[in-house]
Write a structure and sequence with these properties.
single chain, alpha+beta, Aminopeptidase, 7-stranded mixed β-sheet, globular, acyltransferase, GNAT_dom
Length: 150
């Protein structure tokens, strides 16, 4: 498996991710493509990044890091659109993608937030990567406090 930082999303075929996610009832991969194509979210602000995971040239996972759009704080990041094809889950791919995102965040953000589904495997992944489950916080189900590595 290879994790690549995305310079241009148009270079990647995300059809499998889109189809798989839609079949699970998720629309966020479609939204990622739409927002990227329209220019609303290119993951190109300071500290932001987007990654794909590939096996044999096939994109099997994706995940990004944005400045949290729900807060007006430049040092709070947000994990965005983390998804792994169902056929490739359970082998550590999601954890590697998320750890790549966390490593990138350490130089730019003091906190990373995310909002997750109730999927037990996703919940376990976030906890295993150091996030704490939170309640009552707007647009956040998990938070990771990190320190800037200047």
């Amino acid at each position: 498996m290879i994790i690549e930082r995305v310079a241009s999303l148009e270079e990647y075929n995300l059809d499998l991710l889109i189809d798989d996610s839609i079949s699970e009832g998720y629309k966020f991969i479609n939204r990622l493509v739409d927002e990227y194509t329209s220019g609303n979210n290119k993951f190109d602000k300071t500290g932001e990044s987007l990654y794909v995971a590939k096996i044999g040239g096939e994109v099997v996972g994706i995940g990004g890091l944005n400045i949290d759009p729900y807060l007006n704080l430049p040092d709070v990041g947000r994990v965005r659109h983390l998804y792994v094809l169902r056929k490739n889950r359970g082998v550590g791919l999601g954890k590697e993608l998320l750890n790549t995102i966390i490593a990138e965040a350490k130089g730019n953000f003091r906190t990373i937030r995310l909002s997750s589904t109730d999927d037990p495997a996703a919940q376990q992944l976030y906890i295993a990567c150091g996030f704490s489950k939170v309640e009552g916080i707007y647009k956040a189900s998990h938070i990771l406090e990190i320190s800037k590595s200047w």
